[in-house]
Amino acid sequence: MTNKLLVVNDTYYPKVDGVLIFVEEFIKRAQNDFEITLLVPDYSRKKKFKKVKTVFLELSKRFSAFTYQPIKYSRSNRKNIKKAVKDSSVVFIQVFGPIGVLAFRYARKMKKKIVVYVHNTPWEFLEKHYSLRKITAKLTKKYFISMYNKADILLVPFHEFIGELRKAGIKNKMEVARLGVDIDRFSPAKDKLQMKKKLKIPLKKIITYVGRVSNEKNTLLLLDAFQKLKGEVHLLIVGDGQPELVKQFREQNDCTVTGFVSNVEDYLKASDIFVMPSLTETTSLATLEAMSTGLPVLATKVGFVKKYIIKDHNGSFFPRNSSAHLALKIEKLLQNPELAQKYGNNARKTVAYAFSWERSINKIKRILRRFDQN
User: Fold this and answer.
1) At what angle do helices 75-86 and 98-109 cross, to 10 degrees?
2) pTM (2 decimals)?
3) CA distance 29 to 49
4) What local confidence, expressed as pLDDT, does residue 136 receive?
5) Residue 24 CA neighbour count, 13 Å, CB half
6) Residue 64 has what pLDDT?
7) Which candidate, 107, 78, 75, places its Cα nearest to that of 93?
8) What is the full DSSP assignment across 12-80?
9) Given this model, what pLDDT does residue 270 score?
10) pLDDT tens per residue, range 131-153
């Protein structure tokens, strides 16, 4: 057992997103190597990790951010964050939300080693989510870049992302540690029809999106495209998000919005086509999980997605501003099941060959041990 590791994240169950999936997979594979404390918001205490101490932070009752409720800026929360940082030797930060920022500041004051996994570019996320004015967007970007440059090391999910971050002004040391997929959990359905019946989803062709329903995810483009489709089709939204956007999906005929679920793989196994319309992504775990499940994927050319999806091999791309093009792509797959099957089979092979949690997390553990020993 090495020294104490503090894992910091601004989301927790039941609000599952790609970052929380990474945290879950990391803890599974690292809990015997480190004495881990998890610092998270108190959305729910129903799920805890057996060998991990979890520090829950009180939520604000006055504010909300994105689809998540931020923590309360209280004396007790600050005290708990400060103590968790003090008791650790390395602070492993996932997101620079309220918890991540406070943990980072305390870690800097106490001269703790800080490792940050850059899951996305938060300044782009905030700019698109809130439609920030130019000067505000510029100051937001400057703030985050300053934070990233003060960490001991940054971990990124793919090599090309380093170039993007360098261009943005990040000069810190960076190493690549790819995200992965549990290919046993996310495997092709043995009986798709039976899975639809189990989940009480209409026995139609299912067009699926998994993730936040929000501006930066460009989800209304998918809704517009769906409205152009004809025939026996059903839209499945696995996730939750901005209330005003979610409402539009719920009001749509032949559309199901599940909210946050713990069995995403079941919904993917009941699906026929997966769509990722996002304006900003890095790796997009949701897309990789859909590919691992053997689904044909239609996506925008963003982040690492444009590298691992190979046009007309394991998926296809559509313009981020054209619902008409997306509708045509969906229709093509619906009318050509052999092509859809080809995309899905090759998608599964792509993920099984190139995206391993074991390889990625073993590399992260080596990096964390290195800092532990310094």
Assistant:
1) 50
2) 0.83
3) 12
4) 86
5) 17
6) 62
7) 107
8) -TTS--HHHHHHHHHHHHHTTTSEEEEEEE-S--S---TT-EEEEEPBPSS--BTTBPPBP--HHHHHH
9) 98
10) 667 888 889 899 999 999 999 99
Contact 129, 214 (CB under 8 A): yes
Residue 251 corresponds to which amino acid? E
CA separation for the pair 22, 317 (Å, rounded): 26
Residue with tokens 């997101």: 95
Q: How many Å apart are CA 290 and CA 208, to the nearest integer?
A: 9
Q: From CA 13, how far away is CA 48, in angstroms rounded?
A: 9
pLDDT at 2: 54
How many other C-beta atoms are found inside a 10 Å radius of the C-beta of residue 220?
A: 16
Tell the residue number behind the tokens 């939300």, with chain if given.
97
Supply the DSSP string of 67-86, one letter for each residue: TBPPBP--HHHHHHHHHHHH
User: No. of H helices and E strands in the chain?
Assistant: 15, 13
Residues 78 and 102: beta-carbon distance below 8 Å: yes
Q: Which residues contact 366 (CB under 8 A, 6 or more apart)?
A: none
In one-letter notation, the amino acid at residue 54 is T
Question: What confidence score (pLDDT) does residue 288 get?
Answer: 97
Residue 231 is encoded by which pair of tokens? 């025939």
User: What order of strands is seen across the sheet that includes strand 273-276?
Assistant: 255-257, 233-238, 205-210, 273-276, 297-299, 315-317
- Write down the pLDDT at residue 68: 67
Those residues of the chain that have pLDDT short of 70 are: 1-2, 63-68, 129-132, 372-374
Nearest to 351 by CA among 297, 282, 277, 270: 297
Please say whether the beta carbons of 296 and 278 come within 8 A: no
> In this predicted model, what pLDDT tens digit does every residue of 166-191 receive, in sequence order?
999 999 999 999 999 999 999 999 99
Residues 198 and 188: their CA atoms lie apart, in Å, by 16
Q: Which residue's entry shows tokens 């689904």?
A: 295
Please calculate the CA angle 37-41-42 and round it to the nearest 5 degrees.
100
